[in-house]
């Protein structure tokens, strides 16, 4: 974050503001953790702030301090719109294009107040007056820690904020195993633990609260896995019928795509999940090494993200999507066999 942006934020926060904080649609641990941490920080500075999420998110994230104050735009529409209409500043976290917030997009586009973006994804759009964008960062939560540090307030990070920030860093780094994890990341995490983040308890709340249905769904997913040794690729399909059979709940498929990368020799893993309500196939891409799933998702599946983790979608059927995906692999033979 450059000095000009820091001064602009300081100027904004030097006066009382009505601030709306927005994560992306289907918020994950980093989105929920970063928005709640910023919410606590702004409230503690005497600002009026509220988090408005585009839609619901998994139960295993709802323990975080301040969760009860998040407005769900889908379920609390009139209240959420009222807060947005009153806003004098909008912070958008963990996304960089307003197309990532679903039905909220048109509402935010109508605002004429300053926007502040904090995000680590590639190819940001230019809707925000103040941008803190850094694709090298592990997570938006680590960026929020930096943001607070830039403002000279790192000593004001409370245990509640530390819990939220730790959660986002932990989940977005794959429990600190992804290559974006740096020594700086561990130093930030160490400071968060010193400030009260309950690291063992956080891990338990996020990863050790499975339902029988989720574990049975995982078994189904692994049974469906297709391994293409020639292209060092593995992919999983899950139909709507299979999701219904195992009483799917939001967040149940979180992390399933990573199982493909646990296979020796596999560097490209994908999961295709049928969503009949939206009429699409939701896709998650993961890779190891230099193969850019961000470029792959952008080129063929209306998606994007990071070099080693991205998302996308398809309007084809589940079977047709999988076959189309397989047909693309030959184009990347050299990269996948390198």
Topology:
Blueprint: H1 3-13, E1 18-22, H2 29-44, E2 48-53, E3 71-72, H3 77-86, E4 89-93, H4 104-109, E5 115-119, E6 130-133, H5 140-150, H6 159-172, H7 183-194, H8 199-207, H9 212-224, E7 226-228, E8 233-238, H10 240-245, E9 268-275, E10 280-287, H11 293-300, E11 304-305, E12 309-314, H12 318-329, H13 333-337
Helix pairs in contact: 2-5, 2-6, 5-6, 6-7, 6-8
Domain DHHA1: 251-316
Domain DDH: 18-169
Protein name: Bifunctional oligoribonuclease/PAP phosphatase NrnA
Task: Characterize the structure shown.
By secondary structure, this protein is an alpha/beta fold. It folds into two domains: 205 residues, inorganic pyrophosphatase (n-terminal core) (Alpha-Beta Complex), CATH 3.90.1640; 125 residues, Diaminopimelate Epimerase, Chain A, domain 1 (Roll), CATH 3.10.310.30. The protein is built from 13 helices and twelve strands. A six-stranded parallel β-sheet has the order 3-2-1-4-5-6, with helices on both faces. Strands 7-8-9-10-12-11 form a six-stranded mixed β-sheet. 43% of the residues are buried. The mean pLDDT is 96. One of its GO terms (molecular function) is nucleic acid binding. InterPro entries: DDH_dom, DHH_sf, DHHA1_dom, Oligoribo/pAp-PDE_c-di-AMP_PDE. Pfam families: DHH, DHHA1.
């Amino acid at each position: 974050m450059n000095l000009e942006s820091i001064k602009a934020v300081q100027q904004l926060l030097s006066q009382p503001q009505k601030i709306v904080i927005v994560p992306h649609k289907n918020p994950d641990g980093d989105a929920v953790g970063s928005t709640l941490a910023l919410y606590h920080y702004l409230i503690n500075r005497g600002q009026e702030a509220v988090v408005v999420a585009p839609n619901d998110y998994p139960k295993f994230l709802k323990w975080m301090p301040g969760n009860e104050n998040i407005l769900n735009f889908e379920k609390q529409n009139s209240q959420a719109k009222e807060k947005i209409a009153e806003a004098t500043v909008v912070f958008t976290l963990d996304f960089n294009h307003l197309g990532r917030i679903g039905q909220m997009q048109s509402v935010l586009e109508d605002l004429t107040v300053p926007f502040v973006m904090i995000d680590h994804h590639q190819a940001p759009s230019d809707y925000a007056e103040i941008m803190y964008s850094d694709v090298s960062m592990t997570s938006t939560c680590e960026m929020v820690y930096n943001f607070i540090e830039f403002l000279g307030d790192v000593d004001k990070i409370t245990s509640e904020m530390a819990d939220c920030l730790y959660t986002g860093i932990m989940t977005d780094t794959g429990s600190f195993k992804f290559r974006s994890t740096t020594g700086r990341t561990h130093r930030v995490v160490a400071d968060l633990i010193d400030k009260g983040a309950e690291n063992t308890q956080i891990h338990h709340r996020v990863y050790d609260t499975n339902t029988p249905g989720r574990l049975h769904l995982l078994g189904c997913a692994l049974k469906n896995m297709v391994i293409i040794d020639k292209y060092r690729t593995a992919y999983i399909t899950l139909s709507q019928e299979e999701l219904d059979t195992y009483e799917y709940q939001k967040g149940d498929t979180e992390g399933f795509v990573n199982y493909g990368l646990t296979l020796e020799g596999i560097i490209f893993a994908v999961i295709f999940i049928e969503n009949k309500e939206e009429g699409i196939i939701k896709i998650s891409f993961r890779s190891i090494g230099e193969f850019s799933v961000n470029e792959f998702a952008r080129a063929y599946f209306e998606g994007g993200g990071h070099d080693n983790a991205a998302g996308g979608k398809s309007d084809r059927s589940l079977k047709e999507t999988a076959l189309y995906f397989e047909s693309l692999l030959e184009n990347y033979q050299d990269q996948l066999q390198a």
